[in-house]
TrEMBL record:
Transmembrane segments: none annotated. The keyword Coiled coil does not apply. This is Nuclear transport factor 2 family protein. It comes from Asprobacillus argus. It comes from the Bacteria. Keywords: Signal. InterPro entries: FrzH/put_lumazine-bd, NTF2-like_dom_sf. The keyword Acyltransferase does not apply. Residues 1-18 form the signal peptide.
Length: 160
């Protein structure tokens, strides 16, 4: 009986340690995403760049006014230049509604539904999908695709 209790206690302890380690890993990944948006909100391309792998791929999908589905690809340099050239009087606020983080080894996937405000006014909503790579101890964004729409944004709020 003592052996069974000891094995049970060891199993529970191992599971708790593993969950705690994974929680710390998810917090580190969430911090990268928060830092990314901190740079976006401040218009600071240096902060933004610190979160991105040098080979990042960045895409946006949306539906145009004619109802056609569009996919736009930008380079890391284009995004950083756009942020660096943001007018100081312009404000960007991307309000993340939730985080879903999945981790397997050195790969992480993060899903973040959002609402975007430009100069304090609602602009659009959608979702971001981030792929991150643990580059020898530093999580970096290797892929980002966001979906944008101007309608049916209340549905996102209900999925929180």
């Amino acid at each position: 009986m003592k052996k069974i209790l000891l094995l049970l206690a060891l199993s529970v302890s191992t599971m708790a340690i593993k969950a705690q380690g994974q929680s710390a890993e998810k917090q580190a990944i969430k911090k990268v995403i928060e830092t990314f948006f901190d740079g976006l909100h401040k218009g600071d391309s240096t902060i933004l760049k610190s979160t991105m792998h040098k080979a990042i791929k960045i895409q946006t999908t949306a539906t145009n006014r004619e109802g056609k589905k569009m996919l736009k690809t930008e380079t890391r340099e284009q995004v950083l230049t756009n942020i660096a050239n943001k007018k100081p009087q312009d404000t960007y606020l991307e309000k993340l509604l939730s985080y879903t983080i999945k981790v397997d080894g050195n790969l992480a996937s993060v899903w973040t539904p959002y609402e975007f405000y430009y100069n304090g006014n609602f602009s659009h909503c959608g979702a971001n999908s981030f792929q991150l790579f643990n580059n020898n101890g530093k999580w970096e964004i290797i892929y980002l695709v966001d979906m944008r729409r101007r309608q049916n944004c209340d549905a996102l709020k209900n999925k929180k």
